[in-house]
What does this fold into?
Amino acid sequence: MKQVKPFLSFEEQIERLHVHGCNVEDSSLAQTVLSRVNYYRFSAYFLPFKGKDGEYREGTSFNSVSRIYEFDRKLRVILFAAVARVEVFLRTQFAHYHAEQYGPLGYINDTAFRAKGHDHMRFMKKINDEVKNNAKVPFVQHHIQNYNGQFPIWVIIELFTFGMLSRFYADMHTKDQKTLAKKLFGLNPKTLTSWLHCCTDLRNNCAHHDRLYYRIFPSFPAGLTELKVNDRQRIFGMLLVLKELYPDKAGWNVEVFGQIQSLLLEYQPDIKLPHIGFPQNWQEMLKNKWKAI
It folds into this structure.
C-alpha cells in the first residue's frame, strides 16, 4: 500500500505545480486561488495538460487553468438551473399522468409498475426515507397530521430526486412509457430512459460542484448520431439532451444557449472546444431545432 501524501502548505502546493512544469505567473494570485479551491479539486483541471510521463506539457499556465476552472464553475450554475426546469416539468407531467391512470395513491401498489426490473420494496423505502428526511417541511407535516401520512402522487413526487424520477419512468409499464415519451418529447421510451439517466448524472455533477470540463460522463445518450461517439459522453452531448428535454423551447435560446454562448466568448482564449466535445457547428446544433432520433 502506498503512503498517504504529506500535507502541503499553499506555498508548497505552488512549488509542486512549478516542479511538474506549470508556469505560475503570479504566486500571489495562485495562493489566493488555492486558498479558495481545494488543491485536489483544482489539480483535476490540469488533466488536459498532462503528458504520458505525468508532467505538464510545455506552456502550461496556472492563469489559464484558473480561467478554465472559472468557466467550469459558471457553466455549472447555468446548467443546474436548466436541469431544475426539466425536473419540475417532469414531476408535473409524470404525476398528472400517473394519477389519471392509477389514482392518487396508485404508486403504492406494485401493479402500477412493470413486473420485471421494478423493486417495489426498495421504491417505497426510498419514498419513506425522503418523508423522514423532510419531516419538518410544512407540506409533509400537513399530510402526516391530516391524512395519516398518505401522500397523493402529485405531493410525494415533490420529494423525488432526479434519480428517483428517472427510475419512476423506467419502471412504468411499457404502454405508459410510450404514451409519455411520445406526448412530451416525440421520443421512444428507450431514448427517453437513456436521456433521463444522462440528466441525472448532469444534475448530480452540478449539484456536487464536480468538474464538467474534459469529463467523460458515465451515461451514454441514445441517438445523437450527428456527434462523434467519443463526444456524446462529453458535456456537449449532455447539453443536446438537456435542450431536447427543456420545456420552454422558445426560452432555451435566451435562458441557456445565450448564456453559454456569452460564457464561451468570455473564456475563448483558454477553452479548447474538443475538450468539451463541441463540434465546429455547435451553435447551429445547440440553438436551432435539432432532433437526434
Notes: The chain is about 55% helix and 0% strand.
